[in-house]
Automatic annotation (TrEMBL):
Transmembrane helix listed as a keyword: yes
CC terms in the record's Gene Ontology section: membrane
Pfam family, one: LiaF-like_C
Cell wall-active antibiotics response LiaF-like C-terminal domain residues: 130-242
Keyword Transmembrane helix set for record: yes
Lineage: superkingdom: Bacteria
Protein's name according to its UniProt entry: Cell wall-active antibiotics response protein
Keyword terms of this UniProt record: Membrane, Transmembrane, Transmembrane helix
Species per Swiss-Prot/TrEMBL record: Peribacillus psychrosaccharolyticus
Listed transmembrane segments: 12-45, 57-89
Organism placement in taxonomy: Bacteria, Bacillati, Bacillota, Bacilli, Bacillales
Length: 245
């Protein structure tokens, strides 16, 4: 049902919800700012000291208090009402114009090919909601990176691994956090970076203030290089730094 939603409608709903959140926090219930900040602080400290008993206690206090605050916020009720209204609207449309499914009967193929065997490969990073990640400081085996993240920093040092010949892919989508990528001098780079709020340092080029911008650039010898890296990143709030090592 949701795949048929117009993207413009989603954008407007998100914008209205964001404005409602700001108004609720600033004008109607300013105390929520401090309570929510305290809950998130407990989450971060608890996550960092999770190996200790006090860390576990702080982490779960942060989780339950954050959930309790969000459930009692007007913005949450607003989005819940929008989802319910759209679900009812979609149900109404489905009754007016039911989807027609046409069945095609075919005889079984006696010469059906055997199922193709797949080999699972390892990966450097996994999707993570909260917390920072970085490559090993010692030598490690490289695998392409394709991750989605919530809150936290990512550090990738390509000088401690052997890149394969051809194009290497690094794809990172993150909500809040900084990205730092270290590139060897003999490796060419192609970068596509999208950010809502942040800064960028790409080798000797600096972008101090970026608001809803896209950076697309590559080094001179990228197209002819034997070893090259394509970096595709998308960050809501955060900085990116790409440097030589």
């Amino acid at each position: 049902m949701f795949k048929q939603v117009n993207t413009d409608y989603i954008s407007w709903i998100f914008l209205i919800g964001l404005i409602s959140l700001i108004m609720e926090l600033v004008f109607f219930d300013g105390g929520l700012i401090y309570t929510l900040a305290l809950s998130i602080g407990c989450l971060f400290i608890g996550k960092k000291k999770y190996h200790r008993k006090i860390g576990k206690i702080l982490f779960f206090i942060g989780v339950f208090s954050t959930i309790f605050i969000v459930l009692n916020m007007f913005v949450f009720k607003f989005f819940l009402l929008v989802i319910l209204a759209y679900a009812l609207y979609g149900f109404y449309l489905s009754k007016q114009n039911p989807e027609k499914v046409q069945l095609m009967l075919t005889e079984p193929n006696q010469n059906t090919e055997e199922k193709e065997q797949l080999i699972k490969t390892s990966y450097l990073f996994s999707n993570k909601l909260i917390g920072s990640q970085q490559t090993q400081k010692s030598v490690y085996e490289w695998n392409n990176v394709n991750i989605q993240r919530g809150i936290g920093d990512v550090v990738i040092d390509l000088s401690n691994t052997i890149l394969p010949k051809g194009e290497t892919i690094i794809s990172i989508r993150s909500m809040v956090g900084n990205l730092k990528i270290k590139i060897p001098y003999d490796v060419e780079v192609n970068l596509h970076h999208s950010v809502v709020i942040g800064r960028a340092v790409i080798f000797q080029n600096h972008e101090k203030r970026m608001y809803n911008q896209i950076i697309s650039c590559q080094t001179e010898g990228f197209n002819k290089a034997v070893q090259k890296v394509t970096i595709i990143t998308s960050v809501f709030i955060g900085n990116i730094e790409v440097n030589r090592v």
